[in-house]
Amino acid sequence: MSKYNRRTFLQLTGAAVGAATLGAGNATARESESRFFINLRDVERSAIPDDVEIIHDLSQADVLVARGDQDSVNGTTVSDLTIDLSDDTTGAVESRDGPSTDGNGSSHNHDGAPTNSEYQWDKRVQDLNNDLTDKPGGGKSVHDVTTGAGTRIAVVDSGVDDSHPDLAGVVNDDLSENVSEDEFDFRPNGAGSHGTHVAGTIAATNSNDAPGGGVLGTAPDTEIVSYRMFSGVEGKQGDGYAGWVKAAEAGCDAINYSVGFPAPFVYPDQYPSLLEELRIAEQVAEYVRSQGTVIVNSAGNDGLDMSPESTLSLPTEAEGVFGVSATGPIGCGWGGKHSDNEAKWLTGNRLEEPTTQPAFYTNYGSAVDISAAGGNADLEALDAEVEGAQIDLVYSTIPGGYGWKAGTSMAAPQVSGAVALVRSLRPDASVEEVESLIEETASTPEEGEVYHGAGHLDLTALVDAAR
C-alpha cells in the first residue's frame, strides 16, 4: 500500500493547515467558559452580561469575540472555531543533492548541489529576477520594474522567524504581535514553520551568504507584519479576525491568510452555524477592505468543488475575500527528461505536467478568484523515493533553513506578493482596482475558470499593466 495520499502528503510537507473542529460552544459540546462571536448588528452591547469577557473588540466590524456563557447573551451568537495546524513536519533539506551537469552543452553547470534559489521554479517561471535563471541575454525581469518597495503585507499565521538571514530586516518588529491568548510574542510558538515559509514566499531577500545562498520572494522590498494566531498547534478563528483588523489599521496593503476549514466543515446542512460564521467573516472583510487592505486566502486542500450551494468553505467564500487555488508541475528537475540546464527545467517536454497544472489536492469552483503556484506531486514517485521528486513542491524559508511545502497555503502568498508589486507602482489603487488588475492580467490555462478563476497569476503582465 502506498504511504502517500492527499492528506499524508500535505502533513508531510507541513501544509495541512485548517483541520478544523467546531470549538467549545458548539451545539453538542458547549462549555460554560466557551469562546464565541457576538454580532453587534443583532445584539445591543449594553445587554451583554458583565460576566461575559470580551477577548477581542472588533466593533469596527460590529463583531466581538467573547468568552463566557453563550446562552446568557440574547441575540445572534455563534461559536468560535478551533483550527488545528496539524503535523507541521517541514520537509527540511538535510542534503541539497540535485541534478548534475550532463556535459552536453548545458549553459548551466552545477558545481556540486544546486543553490537554494535554483529550486524556486515558482519564481523562475515568472521571470521574477535574472539572478534566478541563466536564460541567454537575460531580458527584462519583474524586479527590473518593481521589488515592492514602500508596501506592507500582513502574515496572519503561525508566526514568522525574523532571525532567518533571508528575512532579517524584513519583519516590522514594532507592528508585529501575538493575537492569540498566550503570553509570547509574534514569533513561532510550537506551531512549526508554516508562517515563516509563507513570509519567505512573499518577501525573502536572498541575503544568506552561506554556501548554497538564499531564496528570493516575490516582493523582497516589502515589509512583513506578523500576527501570530496559533498557540502551539491550535488557533482560533476569532484571533485570526483580530489579526485582520489590526493589519488593516496598521496600513497593510494585503493580508495573507493561508488558513481555512476543510471537509466536513463546509456543509451548512450539517453545521447550520456556518451561515452565521459567514456573516461574521463578511462583516470583518467589509471593514478591512474599507481600510484599503486586500484579503488573500488559500482556497483549501480537499479537492472540493466549492460551487454547489450545499458547500460553504470559510473564509474563502465570504464576500470580499480573494480566493487562491494551487497549481504546480510534475517532473521539475527530475525524471530524466532534461539536461542540467535549469532554465529548461520549466519548458517543452521537460515536464510531465506544466507549472499551471491544477494541483491534485486543490479546491476549485466558483469561490476561486485566481490560481498561483502552490506545488504539486507525483505521489508514486514520492512513494518510490525517486531522487528530486520533492522539487515539484514550493521551496522557501523555514526556521533555521529552507524546506519544501505544498498547498493552497503556498499559493496564496504568491498573490499577496503580487499585491505588494501593484501597490508599489500604484500606491493609491483601491482594493477593487488591485484585484481587477491581478485578474485582468492573468494567463488562461486550458483547465479554465473552474480551476483558475480569472486565470493564472502572471507577474510580468501585471507589472507591465500597473506601471
Q: Supply the number of helical segments.
A: 10
Indicate the CATH topology of the largest domain.
Rossmann fold
Give the structural class. Answer: alpha/beta
Alpha carbon gyration radius: 21 Å
User: In percent, how much strand structure appears in the residues?
Assistant: 15-25%
Shape: globular
The CA-CA distance between the termini, in Å, is: 53 Å
From the 3D coordinates, which CATH architecture of the largest domain would you assign?
3-Layer(aba) Sandwich
How many strand elements? 17
Number of domains: 2
Largest sheet: 7 strands, parallel
CATH C-level category of the largest domain = Alpha Beta
Overall helicity: 10-25%
The average pLDDT value, as a whole number, equals 86
Order of helices and strands: HEEEEEEHEEHEEEHEHEEEHEEHHHH
Low-confidence spans: pLDDT under 50, at least 5 residues?
Answer: 16-32, 87-111
Q: Taking strands numbered 1, 2, ... along the chain, how are they ordered across the largest sheet?
A: 8-9-7-12-13-14-15
The CATH homologous superfamily of the largest domain is named Peptidase S8/S53 domain
GO molecular function, one term: serine-type endopeptidase activity
GO biological process, one term: proteolysis
Protein name: Subtilase family protein
Pfam family, one: Peptidase_S8
